[in-house]
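Quick start: read one record
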Amino acid sequence: MATISTPVYPRPRLRILRLAGFVLAVLLLVALGICAWFYSVARSALPQLDGKVRVAGLSAPVTVIRDAHGAPTIESANLDDLFFAQGYVTAQDRLFQMDGMRRFAGGELAEILGSDLVKHDRQQRILGLKAMAKKTAENMPAEIRVHFEAYARGVNAYIETHRDRLPLEFRILRYSPRPWTPEDSMVIGMQMVEDLSTSPRHALVRERILAKLGPELTADLYVNSSWHDRPPTVERQGLDQVIKHNDQDDDDDEDDDSGTDSSVTGLTTRPDVPAWPRPEMFFDERPLVLGSNNWVVSGAHTVSGKPLLSNDMHLGHQMPNLWYEAHLRCGSGNFDVAGVTLPGYPYVIVGHNQRIAWGFTNLGPTVEDVYVETFNPDGQYLTPDGWQQPEHRREVIHVKEKEDVVVDVVLTRHGPIVTELQPGETRKLALRWTLYDGTRSPFFAVDSAQKWEEFKRAFSELDAPGQNVVYADVDGNIGYQATGRIPIRAAGDGSLPENGSDNAHEWTGYVPFEKLPSVYDPPSGIIASANSRITPDGYKYSLSTEWEAPWRTARIYRVLESGKKFSAADMLALETDIYSDMDRFFADRFLYAVDHAKNPSARAKAAAEILRQWDGRMIADSAAPTIAVQARQELVRLLLEPKLGAAPQDPKQIETTLNWKSYQWMMSTVWLENVVQHQPKRWLPENYASYDELLTAAVEAAVGPAGGLDASQDLNLWKWGNFHPVRIQHPIYGKIPLLRRWTGPGLQPQSGSEFTVKAVSLDHGPSERITVDLANLDQSTLNLVTGEAGNLFSPYYLDQWKAWYEGFTFGWPFSGPSVEKARVHEAVLEP
């Protein structure tokens, strides 16, 4: 009979098992406790959306109605209470973001994030945004200052009544926000100016390229116009003229001046958790991704018979998204305006009121000049009047858990010495910037404008950033106005550094507002801008030395000039359009070259077959865009490497060593188009007998082992969306593995490219999508990127992401009955 024996564990092993169980139980309890604390603290910071809320500082009750996406309509009896409530309500949803934005702009991040942010803070202190914000706030007109002060009081009312219920991010970083001031609002506005400025380093790199290549090749590279250009004030030229211009051929060295692919980077997926914040240094030679679009069509082109105006401003992604939707109503003064607002700043920035609508794209004017100053051993610098002593501004950077860092900012007559912001530079470089002449806030007048003349008068005070503004009104009129304070120079155009010791290249004034490009009710009934050239041929002034490439503008006009009668849905379809005429052009040239090559590899022929079937759309699931873009990048390398040198292996040396990657230019694809189309001998590398041979080599390099992608993989698996994704993640929660997937979209494949109307890259894209229907404002549409709220437990934290990502949108109520019908929450702020 079998016996069953029960094993007897040694006592030590039993004790270890019991101890392990105990430890696991404790860890589980700790984890549950942390989760409970996290949940409790995060939820305690959710705003009160319904009922009565006592708020000290108001003079009368203010009603806040929120719709299904948490967007507030704020209605007050007077303007002081209105802007107070705007500050309070915005802080309810975005306080941590607001505090981070003012710290980012003012150079105060190291105080809460540590020494890794000292470099960024030094830059901001040298640039002096906070110093200028203080000066601007002090000089603000009294009638505008009261609005900023009311807004600040509203933010502070929220802060002081919620010190024990602040957003969780403040708890994690262990600090509490200081009181808000008008200066904080101004510095946030100035950060937008910095973000939308072209890099002054372009002048320094251009100087080195000019010295190496000479004026002819340099002029080719730094092209600033194209036959594709569609300035908004110029009616369409005849088709025969367009064809004649396009068909011009030039097989010798005398072709027109024309500009590499600055916006194409290595097509490899990158980490899905960005560093926060993601500071871009002002002197970085980064491709400036703009991508904004705006257009307006008259009633002659719409199903309603009244204008449609669309705008999608393309900016860097963040979590929560940059803009905060709001509707501001005041019982006195007929103030009723809705649109997107900048957290931390009063007013509506883009949107519509009862009668007019407007939208922005960045004009990109050249408003920063670099001057080389001469200093003597005594610390003086040379001027036309002799040696002068510079001024000094002492900046103290507080660093978390470390000693303060003191920055001595040297100030010349042109501006601060910024040499340390340019790696490898030893000369004393001074930065002249229109920002240092002060800025005004025109948005109360913009929000209040009722007709074209008032609209223009208001925007005459938008000093920076210079913008292209489209306009429409309920009477059926449309218009366009360029804005911004843009310098007139005694000589030069700001494209190269100049001698600071004389007055030969001084600013002699600003382009008069009435001389900036403008048009009202053009015969075509169509106006569009997309960051490309806005000046007509023969225009008197130099506004920008670096326009954006014209591909998006040309595509927008092509669609709008189709003869179709448009609806709001058609406008959204154009905002999300992913056809790339530029990439299709190069794909066709690559295909032709491979087809006519002597002995192309099997892989190059496979690539050609994929390109042959392509319709030019940058679809996430397609391999053709990946091949086309990778081949174009290799073509740039093959053209530039023999002339500017190979890129160093050490990434740190790329910034300081002139090489083919040094060339970054927003119209670089126009230079490349000119080279491929006209095939000048001066650009053909010596080791290639023809351009077809060169184009074939670019395809071979793109799909071969040296191309940077998986050369062993089936080319059909090179899905564009995998190599050109979008990345949006929360700056704090995104670094916590258990929270990461719940706190932001993360890394997602996407359709579109930098050159499609839906202009997108890894960290940039449409920051909002708006279409205003002037036939019925309640039929207008608006959606943000992720949502209104900054609290991850709010239902409005990510509720708009799917619409942004998949390309649909939401209704945008405006009239009283429409707002009431859309009401989901109603709170009354009471004194």
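The first helix runs from residue 11 to 44.
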